[in-house]
Write a structure and sequence with these properties.
The protein is elongated. It has 161 residues and is an all-alpha fold. It has helices at residues 6-26, 34-58, 65-93, 95-107, 115-155. The longest helix is centred in the last third of the chain and has 41 residues, at 115-155.
Length: 161
């Protein structure tokens, strides 16, 4: 049986992403801030690649590309599930987060929208905010995690063919 590390890396990655999210919220840092848009994605990529490399190392490089990729995807899945559950709970506990996010999004909306279109967009977003936030996090984390798992599997040392 292979040594596994996906749970530890998944939990640590999720914790770091949650802390970053809470810092952004409580420090009132805009979601449009370029640093706060990219840092969470870079953390996810870094954790997954580090987990893939470590998986190879703890198994003395006696792994295949598929095994390393699978480990990276498991890390991604753990991070994604934990953060999506957290986001759903967070929106329920802090309803002002939803309003701040909607106001910020409308302030950055295209200038060619009339007042009625803006109001319809705000109302739709208010009704579906939690679903949209969780679905967006799910899609972005899984897509980013798959790419990071592929990179991690490619760079990890392997003795098997």
């Amino acid at each position: 049986m292979k040594n596994k590390n996906h749970v530890v890396y998944g939990l640590v990655g999720a914790l770091v992403l949650i802390v970053l999210f809470m810092v952004q919220y409580f420090a009132k840092i805009s979601s449009q801030n370029p640093v706060m848009r990219w840092v969470p994605m870079l953390v996810l990529v870094g954790v997954v690649i580090a987990g893939c490399i470590n998986y190879s190392k703890i198994n003395d490089a006696d792994v295949t590309f598929g095994e390393v990729f699978g480990n990276g995807f498991k890390i991604t899945a753990i991070i994604t599930v934990i953060t999506c559950v957290f986001y759903g709970i967070f929106v329920s506990l802090f309803p002002d987060f939803k309003e701040r996010a909607i106001e910020e999004a409308m302030a950055n909306a295209p200038g060619n929208m009339n007042q009625e279109q803006m109001e319809q967009g705000m109302e739709f977003t208010r009704k579906n905010f939690t679903i949209m936030m969780v679905a967006g996090a799910l899609l972005m984390n899984l897509l980013t995690g798959v790419i990071a798992s592929l990179v991690g599997a490619a760079v990890a040392k392997k003795r098997k063919a």
